[in-house]
Each structure stands twice: as structure tokens, then as C-alpha cells.
Amino acid sequence: MSLNLLYSLREGVLAMRRSRLSTLWTTSTIAVALTLFGIFMVLTFNLQRMIDSVRQHVVLEAFVDASLGEDAVEPIRATIAGLDGVSEAVFISREQALARFRDAFGDDPMLVLDENPLPMSIEVQVDAAQRTGAQIEGIARRISGIECIDEVAYKGGVVEIINHWSRYIYLIDAVLFFLVLASALFLVSNTLRLTIMAQKKAIQIMQLVGAERGFIRRPYLIQGIFQGALGGGIASCVVWIVFALISLRLPALFELPSWLLLTPMGLGALLAFWGSEISVNRFLNDV
Amino acid sequence: MIQITDVWYRAGGNQILSEINLHVKRGEFVSLVGASGAGKSTLLRLIHMAILPTKGVVRVDRFNSRSVKAGDIPLLRRKVGFIFQDFKLLEDRDVYDNVAFALWATGARRSTIKKRVFQVLAGVGLSHKRYARIEELSGGEKQRVAIARALANEPFVLLADEPTGNLDPVTTEEILKLLRKINTRGTAVLMATHKDGLVKTLPSQVIKIKEGRIVP
């Protein structure tokens, strides 16, 4: 490490100590902005997770002609399993269907009926890449065209609703993302500008003794990275605490991967570096 | 070493300097004398290339005001020391750090910095105060720290803008003695002052400035 860099590191740390109030203000600003951003990121991540989970459970049910024997259904199941966009096709016998009915509703239709009223069916799982309403409808149409398939039932409406609304949610997410990012950058560059303004005399003296632009800038950039990482670190902790508290009451509602938790810290350092760069350059161009 | 040829400088609609011609040789002591607002400080800032002439040329060593690049100016300033009436010291650092600051900026090694700082502080008679805070020093001591900082990079010329403006007569005499000592060791000194009487005691070439022009 060059001596100049060592000096810049030392100056960056000392500058934070010398201007404690301004460091506190900058770090708090970054922490508040990135806490909002972190909460927003966790919500978006979990919303995406829920949407994916709903999509993964999209199943088509193909009802088979009741006059066929169970042995005759296997070639039909195999044909469906071979269709483009189908990931899995499972045969459900009348007995299995009855058992599911009992599990789901707690009633036994056999108590009031002489025979099992439920038909044989084939449960069809759709590929993850084929989960738009139109694609599912296409697969259902192809299954309906197979001989001995009486009817195909699916919850296409739910998929359509999810797809329709998730587009708006992602749009709102993107707008929020840029708003939070832009306001965080604005706040950071302005608070750091105040810090740099307070160091105006030091910068003028540096220029007076022949310091190069890079030498003058470096301690401020290092100071910015430290403050950003510190503010981001605080934001990461707050986000973790908020969702840990929520999870106490609503376990398994939110997932919080470590990369997501570390994002505010990394982003804080990056934002503050960028903000310092803007502020110090603007200042050096003015003097 | 310093060659100013037909320099004119205009700012904010006012003509600050006109038709300035000046030559300062290595090791020379030159006093610029003139009333406040005569243009002395502007002339020193032109030599330091903090500003560039509207017309004419300023040559300082190998640097020429017509061709100098922004990246060259820090290199020039390491060879042209500058002291001021208000000292321009960093109040939040001690004496050692104020002087070392000028050397860190050049990328000097830590051991070289330490040695050089002790050397220049000894030269200005402040070795015993090297770890004192700036606020603990008298006006004369502050000016000595500023001189030590200006000398840290071994400049060939020291520009002094009213260096005794804030000092009492006894301290003024001490600072002038120090400037003479620096000059006898080979560093040229270019001192601006509004005090006519001050330069009478100095073995210097006196240049009078009035309303932005050099007068006989």
C-alpha cells in the first residue's frame, strides 16, 4: 500500500473524528434512506417468492372417460406427459380422488351415494416457463383434443390475475427503487457537500502546498465509503430486527437471505463513494 | 527564475495590474511595497499561478503561464513557498502535522518526512513546540510554523504576502530576521508589504507598486 494511500486512510478516519456532528448526520441520513430501501427490498423479494409459489402450484386436471378401465389410462397419461410445456402428468384413480375429497372436506360422499361419484383424472404440472394464462390455455386445448379426455379444468383465471397484477407491482417496485436510490444519492451528496464545505480551508491549504487533485479527493472518498458502509450497516441491522420481530408473530412469512441483508451496507458504501465523488469534484471545480 | 513580461490583469471589470515587468534572480531578496489595493497580492498570486494574466507572460522556472496545464500547477507550488498575513494553518492539527502536511502531499516517505519536519522546525526555532496545538501558539510562532511549512519542500523562492501584518514590532523584527536567514541560505524571497519603513532595514531590491503599476 502506498504511503499516500495510508495517509489518505488515516486522514479519512481522522476527518470523521474531527467532524463528529457532521459524520453523525451523514451516517444517520444514509442509515434512514437505506433502512427504507432495505425494507422495500425484502418486501419485493418476498412478494416475488409468493408469486412464484402460487405459479408453481398451477395444475390442470384432465378428466378421463368414465367407461375406460384404469389400464387404458396409462397411454393417455404418457401422451399428455410428452406434450410440450408439460413437466409432469400423474394418474389419479377414483379411489385416490375420493380420499382427497375426504381429506379436503371431511365428508364422505359414500354415506349418501351408492357409488363413488368422482371420475379418474390426470393431474398435469406445467413447465415454469409456460405459466402465462395464454400458454396454459394452449396446453389445456391440446389435452382436450386427446381421445377419451372428457374435460380439462384449470385455474387459468388465478394465473391471469397474478400475471396482470404482478406487472403493476413490478412497475411500482421499479419506480420506488429509483425514487429511493435517487433520494438517497441526493441526501448523501448534499450532506457530504456540507462536510466538504466545512473543510474548505483545509482543501485550500492543500492546494497551496501543491497537493494534486487525487491526493485532495482521496480522504473524502474514503470518509464517504466509511460513512456509507457504517450507515448501510446500521440499516442492515434495523432491517434484520424489523423482520425478525415480524417473524416472531408470523413465522415463515418472510425469508431473509444474507445477501439481501448485506445489500444496504454495500449499497451504502457505493452511494456514499459516488456522493462524495460528486461533491468533492463540484467543490474542487468551484475553488 | 521568475520572469514577468508585460503582464496585465483584469478582474470584475477592474484593471488590477498593468504593464508589469519584473525579474527575480535565484537567491535574491525583493520587496514589493505599495498601499493596500495596489496589486501586490495579485502579483504574488500570478507567480503562484492561482490566477493567470489577462495579457503577458509569467515564467516561473520551467513553468509558463501561457502553456501551463492544471496538472502542472501542484508541481510548481511545491517549489514556490507562500506565507500569508493570516498564516493559513490547520487549527485542528499540531505543529508537526501542519508542516508534515506539505510533504505528505508530495508522496514523500515517512522517515524523510519526519527528518525534514524536524529540520525545518529547528530552522525556524520551533523544535520545542513541535507537538503544540496551533491555538496554543503566539502570532509570531504561528508565522514561523507557516514559514516552516513553506520551506518543507525546499522551494527556490518564498512568496510572503504581508507576513508581519498581524504582528507586533518585536515579533516583526524576528520574522524579518528569519526571512533574511532563509535568503542567505539561497532561497529567493519576494515579500509584499504596505509598510515603507520595514524594507529600509532589509538588504533587498525594493519595487514600488501604485495603482497596479510599477513606479520608480
Q: What does this molecule look like?
A:
- The complex is a heterodimer of chains A (287) and B (216).
- By secondary structure, chain A is of the alpha+beta class.
- Chain A has 9 helices and 4 strands, in the order ααβαβαβαβαααα.
- Chain A folds into 2 domains: 3-53 and 162-286, no CATH class; 59-154, Alpha-Beta Plaits (2-Layer Sandwich), CATH 3.30.70.3040.
- Chain A has helices spanning 3-18, 20-56, 70-81, 94-105, 133-144, 156-198, 200-208, 213-249, 258-286, and strands at residues 59-64, 86-92, 121-126, 149-154.
- A 4-stranded antiparallel beta sheet of chain A has the order 2-3-1-4.
- In chain A, helix 2 packs across helix 9 (258-286) and helix 5 packs antiparallel against helix 6 (156-198).
- Chain B is α/β, with parallel strands linked by helices and 216 residues long.
- In chain B, helix 3 packs across helix 4 (110-123), helix 4 packs across helix 5 (139-151) and helix 5 (139-151) packs parallel to helix 6.
- Chain B has 6 helices and 10 strands; from the N terminus they run E-E-E-H-E-E-H-E-H-H-H-E-H-E-E-E.
- Chain B starts with a strand and ends with a strand.
- In chain B, the strands form 2 sheets. Chain B has a 6-stranded mixed beta sheet, sandwiched between helices. Chain B has a 4-stranded antiparallel beta sheet with strand order 2-1-4-5, covered by helices on one side.
- The mean pLDDT of chain B is 94.
- Chain A binds chain B through residues 2-4, 7, 18, 201-202, 204-213, 215, and chain B through 71, 73-78, 82, 88-90, 92, 101-102, 104-110, 149, 152-153.
Describe this protein with a few key phrases.
heterodimer; A: 287 residues; alpha+beta; Alpha-Beta Plaits; 2 domains; 72% helix; B: 216 residues; Rossmann fold; 6-stranded mixed beta sheet; 31% helix; globular
